[in-house]
């Protein structure tokens, strides 16, 4: 585990990894891909099962999406081997050209920014439940006090957490603490899945409300509307190029095995959580499954703490990756007009970190629930899972001589991937905008 932790931090702490000697094993690659994919999206899957129209439909959509998810990883592995680049945007820029590469950079930054919002939203939800639980205990001790104290307000505790914990962890160039928490995300995901399964059987005869289950989908649009949630949950494509470029054995066949094995484990964890969470609460399931359980249940409290701690430690990594791209863009814009001193670099790094945390915190505090954020992230994720891999495949086959029939099939699959990604992005973005306007 210590070796895997060192591999994890060496990848995540350095955006430009790949220039050194490759040292990542296949087991380490699987571990890091699981860590990248098993995150806040897990909390949203029971709600997605309900929105899709039931377990059968949701599982079919999930399996169909998995084909494109694995296909995207394999295509990008092939493109990375051709381009000899160590970052996602670098691969796209070399294979597809500088214009599409610039678009990739913009999507990359925006996607990381919205993921940061989703992470803070999840942490706030857990803090809200924990604060409610503490308030109930205080009320039992001092009867007559019904108003929640200001220091137990979730927005206050969230702001304090960002100021005292997240900001200090985000400012350094390299975040070495990650080596101590590298397996926490996977453990939190597995623990949550076990809790959801156990609670289904324990609460089966104790739930106060009558469960209602959707027996059929209301429309095809409703069925496909859960794809953004699936994309957000399984998404690890942004980090994959760094993982691939750091492997000791870059054989494409081995990479296919790593990709398939990682995605199948994710499929099992996500499916079990979505299935049993939906069966437990039916149509009453919350967008965040942990919000559906009682606030004073100690088993659920532990799940909340694990998820909150895991996300708090991952957030600075997301900020670091986004900040690095912004720093490079700023320095490229200035060109040779400024001399980058150590003090200027520090000033720029601190300023970008503070602004990133401040803006994501403000948005997270005023977003009603995580499903609205995920609908936006899932749409942007379509670029990284469907559109950019499809473009890379279409462009890559032009550089290699091959059988015309094989070339036609590959180009056709690339075009299908691009069209599916465009549809998912368009649909999820339109729905998100409509729902936003309906609230005003």
Record keyword descriptors for this entry.
440 residues, mainly alpha, disordered N terminus
Structural features, described:
This protein is mainly α and 440 residues long. The protein has 16 helices and no strands. It has helices spanning 2-12, 26-37, 45-52, 55-83, 88-96, 98-141, 154-170, 184-202, 220-224, 227-234, 237-245, 252-281, 298-334, 342-366, 370-396, 404-438. Helix 2 packs parallel to helix 12 (252-281), helix 6 packs antiparallel against helix 15 (370-396) and helix 13 (298-334) packs across helix 14 (342-366).
Annotate the secondary structure layout:
Elements: H1 2-12, H2 26-37, H3 45-52, H4 55-83, H5 88-96, H6 98-141, H7 154-170, H8 184-202, H9 220-224, H10 227-234, H11 237-245, H12 252-281, H13 298-334, H14 342-366, H15 370-396, H16 404-438
Helix pairs in contact: 1-2, 2-11, 2-12, 3-4, 3-12, 4-5, 4-10, 4-11, 4-12, 4-15, 5-6, 5-15, 6-7, 6-13, 6-14, 6-15, 7-13, 7-14, 8-12, 8-13, 10-15, 13-14, 15-16
């Amino acid at each position: 585990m210590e070796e895997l932790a060192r591999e994890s931090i060496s990848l995540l702490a350095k955006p430009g990894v790949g220039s050194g000697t490759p040292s990542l094993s296949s087991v380490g690659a699987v571990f890091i891909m699981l860590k990248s994919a098993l995150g806040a999206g897990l909390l949203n899957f029971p709600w997605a099962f309900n929105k899709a129209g039931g377990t059968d439909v949701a599982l079919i959509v999930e399996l169909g999406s998995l084909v494109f998810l694995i296909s995207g990883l394999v295509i990008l592995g092939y493109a990375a081997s051709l381009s000899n680049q160590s970052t996602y945007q670098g691969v796209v820029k070399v294979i597809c050209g500088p214009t599409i590469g610039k678009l990739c950079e913009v999507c990359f930054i925006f996607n990381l920014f919205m993921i940061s919002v989703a992470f803070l939203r999840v942490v706030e939800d857990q803090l809200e439940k924990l604060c409610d639980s503490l308030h109930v205990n205080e009320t039992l001790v001092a009867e007559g006090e019904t108003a929640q104290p200001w220091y137990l307000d979730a927005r206050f505790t969230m702001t304090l957490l960002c100021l005292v914990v997240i900001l200090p962890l985000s400012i350094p160039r390299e975040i070495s603490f990650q080596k101590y928490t590298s397996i926490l995300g996977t453990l939190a995901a597995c623990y949550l899945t076990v809790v959801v399964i156990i609670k289904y059987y324990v609460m089966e005869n104790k739930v106060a409300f009558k469960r209602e289950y959707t027996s059929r989908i209301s429309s095809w649009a409703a069925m496909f509307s859960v794809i953004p949630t699936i994309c957000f949950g399984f998404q690890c494509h942004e980090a994959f190029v760094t993982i691939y470029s750091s492997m000791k054995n870059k054989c494409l066949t081995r990479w296919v095995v790593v990709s398939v094995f990682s995605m199948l484990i994710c499929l099992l964890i996500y499916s079990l959580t979505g299935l049993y969470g939906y069966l437990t609460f039916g149509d009453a399931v919350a967008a965040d499954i942990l919000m559906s359980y009682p606030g004073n249940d100690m088993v659920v409290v532990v799940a909340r703490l694990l998820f909150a701690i895991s996300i708090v430690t991952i957030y600075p990594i997301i900020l670091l990756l986004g900040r690095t791209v912004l720093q490079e863009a700023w320095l490229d814009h200035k060109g040779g007009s400024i001399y980058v001193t150590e003090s200027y670099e520090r000033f720029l790094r601190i300023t970008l970190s503070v602004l990133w945390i401040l803006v994501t915190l403000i948005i997270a505090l005023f977003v009603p629930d995580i499903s609205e954020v995920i609908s936006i992230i899932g749409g942007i994720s379509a670029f990284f899972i469907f559109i950019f891999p499809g473009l890379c495949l279409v462009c890559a086959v032009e550089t290699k001589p091959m059988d015309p029939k094989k070339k036609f099939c590959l180009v056709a699959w690339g075009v299908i991937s691009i069209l599916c990604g465009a549809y998912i992005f368009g649909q999820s973005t339109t729905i998100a905008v409509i729902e936003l306007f309906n609230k005003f």
